[in-house]
Design goal:
By secondary structure, the protein is mainly α. The protein is built from 4 helices and no strands. About 20% of the residues are buried.
Length: about 110
């Protein structure tokens, strides 16, 4: 969407773009809260020290990590949508800031995995 807006193929009034951008910000904030609340999902305990218990703990911990990765991906997508909406209203500085925020989020997620 951003590329189409930057090329002049997609446009919208500034007011509509700002309302949609605000909705994206609200979504990102909610996803951030869910991600923080989900931090404990990666640290699973309470299973027996048997091989099956260890496997269950690893499996559930992995699912918790996947959940957090999915939330991060949704945050990134919402920020890219925000950038597209703002670019469609020719608010390119704000759109670029939203794109940078999406890239920072992706970079932070990669750092967390390493």
């Amino acid at each position: 969407m951003y590329n189409a807006a930057a090329a002049g193929e997609f446009g919208m009034p500034e007011g509509a773009a700002r309302r949609l951008a605000q909705a994206c910000d609200t979504l990102v904030a909610g996803l951030r809260q869910a991600r923080v609340a989900g931090a404990e999902l990666t640290e699973v305990s309470g299973f027996a020290e048997l091989p099956s218990g260890k496997a269950l703990a690893r499996g559930f911990g992995g699912k918790g990590a996947q959940y957090r990765e999915a939330l991060t991906g949704l945050q990134e997508a919402a920020l890219r949508l925000k950038a597209g909406y703002l670019a469609a209203a020719a608010l390119f500085e704000e759109a670029d800031a939203a794109n940078r925020a999406a890239m920072r989020l992706a970079a932070d997620e990669l750092d967390d995995r390493l």
